[in-house]
Design goal:
There is one protein chain. This protein has 7 helices and 17 strands. With 304 residues, the protein is of the alpha+beta class. The strands form 4 sheets. Strands 6, 9, 10, 11, 13, 14 and 15 form a 7-stranded antiparallel beta sheet that branches. It is elongated and about 60 Å long. The termini are far apart. Keywords: Methyltransferase, Transferase.
Length: 304
């Protein structure tokens, strides 16, 4: 019998199918960004822990410089996959794949870097925030400070008003959509700039509830019928060059319950609230958007 956490994990995406992990290996943007960030963050001889190892590829990147990598994976199918793949690759012997729950596992020794890629757009579905916060409490209780470096180090989340086409060969269906970044989508019209609603710094305590209320200036008139959610993961901060190594999730577009016509110059008041790791419908149901007098609220900061 599955316990409550296992049931929730299956529902919310913790047991991602094997083929989906294979798709992640073929995502060149994701792979290149993580490889670059891990190469920077993991120094020669370091001890590394990966929480939620999947195929083991991120642990493999770490093993090229680390002395030891602990790779924790809860899904037994992925444990077998990771062990098989790591045995085929250079320095795979440095990686110990451990079948354990990331909510409970602690390494037998202090580590220098913790890699955790349980990342979904807007920190929904997967348990990135909850797993890291649980780890920090347990790690400090066992080893004391300082905490390891986390990868990603930070996350910037933003919301953007858009007009989204929902016609599918004459069939009107407002649905949740995921879109690649850096691609022009003919059925998508940006009505305003993205507004930052949360900045997460994993070296600091992270609240499990994201609640935002702010204003966004409408720059282009049209039918406002969706909000696009943008998640930029700051994988590593390269202090020597005053730059960052980033990975941008696919955009997530959520249809609004009550579409409205807007004009350039309108001020849009937006509010929503959801729990980290929660379901997409929980965020979608909480979104409130209405045009307000421009003097009521100042615009939210734009997403860069």
């Amino acid at each position: 019998m599955l316990n409550e956490r296992e049931i929730e994990s299956c529902y919310l995406g913790q047991f991602i199918p094997v083929h989906y992990h294979h798709n992640m290996l073929m995502d060149q943007n994701r792979m290149h960004s993580f490889k670059s960030a891990i190469h920077y963050a993991v120094k020669p001889g370091a001890k590394v822990l990966e929480l939620g190892g999947g195929t083991g590829v991120l642990s493999f990147f770490a093993a090229q410089q680390a002395a030891k990598v602990y790779c924790v994976e809860y899904n037994p199918d992925m444990v077998r996959e990771a062990r098989k793949f790591l045995a085929m690759n250079p320095n795979g012997h440095k990686v110990e794949v451990i079948h354990a729950d990331a909510f409970e596992y602690l390494p037998p020794e202090p580590v220098d870097v913790v890699i955790c890629e349980m990342i979904h757009v807007a920190m929904l579905r997967e348990k990135q925030v909850e797993v890291i916060e649980s780890f920090k409490r347990r790690y400090l209780a066992k080893f004391g400070g300082p905490l390891p470096v986390f990868l990603p180090e930070a996350v910037i989340m933003a919301a953007q008003p858009i007009s989204q086409e929902y016609d599918f060969e004459g069939f009107h269906a407002p649905i949740v959509q995921f879109q690649e970044t850096g691609v022009i989508w003919p059925g998508t019209v940006e009505l305003g700039q993205p507004a930052v609603y949360s900045v997460i710094d994993f070296s600091q305590p992270v609240d499990s509830v994201f609640a935002w209320e702010g204003a966004i200036m409408i720059e282009k008139g049209g039918l406002l019928n969706a909000m696009r959610f943008i998640t930029k993961n700051v994988l590593a901060i390269v202090q020597e060059q005053s730059t960052t190594i980033d990975w941008l999730n696919h955009y997530m577009t959520l249809p609004l319950a009550n579409p409205m016509q807007v004009e350039a110059g309108d001020m849009l008041h937006v509010a929503f609230q959801y729990r980290a790791g929660g379901s997409i419908p929980s965020l979608q149901a909480s979104i409130q958007a209405q045009v307000i007098n421009q003097k009521v609220l100042e615009p939210a900061p734009a997403f860069a």
